[in-house]
Write a structure and sequence with these properties.
Blueprint: E1 2-7, H1 12-24, E2 30-38, H2 45-74, E3 79-87, H3 90-98, E4 104-110, H4 115-118, H5 124-131, E5 136-140, E6 150-154, H6 167-176, E7 179-186, H7 194-208, E8 216-219, H8 223-234, E9 238-243, H9 248-259, E10 269-273
Parallel strand pairs: 1-2, 1-4, 2-3, 4-5, 6-7, 6-9, 7-8, 9-10
Antiparallel strand pairs: 5-10
Length: 274
């Protein structure tokens, strides 16, 4: 059974992401865990203990009520719900909750901007994406669940990828019967030689169990603009990015900070970690 971790601050944004996740997994047996992290401002030792206990009790009560609300709203016998209130920051709470568990995913919301934009600015969401060891879905604010018909993978042509890196994507392809649309952005800084392209393509074909696999090349100096153009022109329902050092995703971070470029898209993301 899958475990889906649902970090929440009880905002409309996080609740929207949670609704998306429940609908996305509506036909699967899933254990959902609502997760709330809390911390207090520094003060005297005795007062901090008292405040933390108050915050913990309030968090537990809010989580219990929210769990019951979700059970009433969705009434899915395939789903079970639990909850955790953990002291500390969001990434500590996520890592504590997922430790020792297998087949775990995290679903987070991206408030006030698109999913890709939210990766590049300080937030709990960006910390979870950068530091979590589990796959992370990022659901932009106000995006409601629709069928997944087209999945795009931003290929970075890094060799020696993990053997099971794309297993989550393969599972989605099988259950949704979606089309797979791999692409990469080439510019003056990133030019891929034919040998590397073929080696990486063969690895993707193997992991994703694809008989036909064509990687579309987008010529664009700004990687963010290239991604934006591809998503919009192909009506992509889910964008898959791989998070690793010196990767395409890291270059997106750099470009975003240096140019303050905002990619306006309402496409959900799936972040994998290699």
């Amino acid at each position: 059974m899958k475990t889906i971790l649902l970090p929440t601050d009880f905002s409309g944004n996080s609740k929207n992401a949670i609704n998306w996740a429940i609908q996305f997994y509506s036909k699967e047996e899933v254990n959902f865990i609502l997760l709330h992290s809390y911390h207090s401002l520094q003060s005297g030792a005795s007062s901090v203990v008292s405040i933390n206990e108050i915050l913990r009790k309030q968090a537990v009560e809010d989580l219990k009520n929210y769990k019951e609300e979700l059970e009433r709203t969705f009434e899915n016998k395939k789903h079970t719900f639990g909850y955790e209130a953990i002291y500390g920051d969001a990434i500590h709470a996520v890592e504590t909750t997922t430790k020792g568990k297998e087949n775990v995913f995290v679903v987070v919301g991206a408030k006030g901007m698109s999913g890709v934009e939210k990766l590049f600015f300080g937030s709990n969401t960006s910390e979870i994406i950068k530091n979590s060891s589990t796959p992370v879905f990022v659901i932009p604010e106000n995006v409601t669940f629709n069928s997944i018909d087209k999945i795009a993978i931003a290929v970075d042509f890094q060799k020696n990828i993990k053997d099971d890196l794309f297993q989550p994507v393969l599972e989605i392809l099988i259950k949704s019967k979606a089309q797979l649309r791999p692409f990469y952005v080439e510019n003056s800084e990133v030019v891929i030689d034919e040998k590397t392209e073929q080696e990486v393509t063969n690895e993707y074909v193997k992991q994703l169990n694809q008989q036909q696999f064509t990687i579309t090349k987008i010529n664009e100096e700004d990687p963010l603009t290239g991604v934006q153009k591809y998503i919009h022109s192909h009506n992509i329902d889910l964008l898959v990015l791989v998070n690793r050092k010196k990767s395409f995703l890291e270059r997106l971070f750099h470009k975003s900070f240096s140019k303050q470029v905002a990619l306006h898209t309402d496409t959900p993301l799936l972040i994998l970690h290699d």
